[in-house]
Amino acid sequence: MIPLVDLKREYAEVGPACLEAARRVAEQGAFILGAELERFERNFAEYCEAQHAIGVGNGGDALYLALRALGVGPGDEVVTPAWTFVATLDGITRCGAKPVLVDNAPGSFWPASEAYERALTPRTRAFLPVHLYGQPVDLAPLRELCDRKGIALVEDAAQAHGAPYRGKTVGSWGDAACFSFYPAKNLGAWGDGGAITTNRAELAERLRVLRNYGSPQKYVHLEVGLNSRLDPLQAAVLNVKLEHLDRWNQLRRGHAALYRELLQALPGLTVPKEQPWGGHVYHVFPVRHTERDALQQHLHAQGVGTVIHYPSPAHLLPAYKHLGHGPGAFPEAERCAKEVLSLPMFPQLTRDDVEQVATAVRGFSA
Ligand SMILES: *Cc1c(COP(=O)(O)O)cnc(C)c1O
Question: Looking at the chain, which runs of residues are DSSP E strands?
Answer without folding.
Answer: 52-56, 77-81, 98-102, 124-127, 152-156, 164-165, 168-169, 176-180, 194-198, 269-270, 285-289, 340-343
